[in-house]
Amino acid sequence: MPDMMPLSRSLRDLGEGRERAAVVSTLRIEDIVDLPKLQRIQDTFAKAMGVAAVTVDQAGVPVTKESNFQSICRMIRSQPEGLRRCRSCDAAGGMAAFESGRTATYVCSSGLVDAAAPIIIEGEYLGCILCGQVTLIDDREARLEDIVRRVEILGLDHEAVVKAARATPVIARERFDSAVEMLMLTASHIVEVGMTNLAQRRLLQESAEKSAVETSLRDAQLQALQARMNPHFIFNSLTLICYTAFEEHAAKTEEIAYTLSDLLRYSLRNTATTVPLGEEFDMIERCLALHKLRFGDQLTKYLDLEEDLKDTPVPCMILQPIVENAIVHGVESLARPATVRVSAHRKGGRVVLEVFDDGVGMSPEQVRALNDNRILPPIPGRKRPALGLQSVITRLENEFGSRFALAVESGEGKGTLIRLSWTT
């Protein structure tokens, strides 16, 4: 679990940061992140973790719509003084998180437990994503009394306040800690997308004046492909948490949340690095374990990694996009059981990685385009291009040059085999 500040920490203890925050950065969250996409991330996070959430700027002013807000907080914010207090508290919580460089967990000005994760671009603080509006099992009754006492000054109806306070979610500290860890990973993903968008914008401006930016632009375009590819996995997995919690009364939520936390941490921290192939296979094992929870006996998975290849360095996240494609485009629409197999072996002085599914397969035109030109043409009925596989091909071409080879075997209704290889 991440380090947490004591929940008894007061708003004053969080620091007089609101005035400093106003001059930290001239950038705005809405300048670098697509707000509808940010809203979807926030809504899915709040629903999956069972907490309220909102993204605010440096002054505590929301830049997104509230997600899963509690009635007590809506009552408080309906009063001018209550709204001022909440925004000041949100700003101070975000500044505390910024100054510490990690999530800040605290009791808000109205007595509820909240947490803030900072959004920092190139060392500049833009705002934060907040979650909470809960009470903890350990001090539920004392916390409810404190909430009612703190809200009295606003002149709201006492009985309505008591009823609304008692309606606030009560959760275990361990579960809230998990939500806070997921909050930081969500903020990290927002930062990653923002940095990619900012880098693209700057490079495009400079390219009009300098031809020397072509190499940097290629890297920025690659990051953009990765930034657009990663959300598919994040959103699909978070949706799985929601479905499982609803259908099984949270019996599997802890297992899914912890597995997803490991996957997100791997994805967000390592996308630009080289990792041992064994770590990449460990990540794929977790990825397929999540899908196995969803599909049950409908999905069979096999992983086969030769022992002497475990320490072989490979670009991080080269298998996950292809495995995700196998699930989403090869298996998901089937009414019958399906198999996904991932393997790595040596053959004739080459490292060979293979991802196979016995799903719907590709058309002859698509197979020919991939094998001849390494480009997947538009697929009828799909609005978006296949970014995941294209990103993997680009990264391996950049890493291994002419030593890299791609081979695709597929037939409609017969499944697909993607083979990636390079000389050592």
Descriptive report:
The protein has 424 residues and is an alpha+beta fold. The protein has two domains: 18-172, Beta-Lactamase (2-Layer Sandwich), CATH 3.30.450; 210-423, Histidine kinase-like ATPase, C-terminal domain (Heat Shock Protein 90, 2-Layer Sandwich). It has helices at 18-21, 29-32, 35-49, 71-77, 80-100, 140-151, 158-166, 173-207, 214-248, 253-270, 277-295, 320-331, 364-373, 387-400, and strands spanning 52-57, 104-107, 113-121, 124-136, 170-171, 274-276, 299-305, 313-315, 338-347, 350-357, 404-411, 415-423. Strands 1, 2, 3, 4 and 5 form a five-stranded mixed sheet that branches. A five-stranded mixed sheet has the order 7-9-10-12-11. A two-stranded antiparallel ribbon has the order 6-8. A hairpin with a 2-residue loop joins strand 9 (338-347) and strand 10. Helix 8 runs antiparallel to helix 9 (214-248). The two termini are 40 Å apart.
Give the tags.
Beta-Lactamase; 2 domains; 5-stranded mixed sheet; phosphorelay sensor kinase activity; Bact_2-comp_sensor_kinase; Histidine kinase
Fold blueprint:
Blueprint: H1 18-21, H2 29-32, H3 35-49, E1 52-57, H4 71-77, H5 80-100, E2 104-107, E3 113-121, E4 124-136, H6 140-151, H7 158-166, E5 170-171, H8 173-207, H9 214-248, H10 253-270, E6 274-276, H11 277-295, E7 299-305, E8 313-315, H12 320-331, E9 338-347, E10 350-357, H13 364-373, H14 387-400, E11 404-411, E12 415-423
Parallel strand pairs: 4-5, 7-9
Antiparallel strand pairs: 1-4, 2-3, 3-4, 6-8, 9-10, 10-12, 11-12
Helix pairs in contact: 3-8, 3-9, 6-7, 8-9, 8-10, 9-10, 9-14, 10-11, 12-14
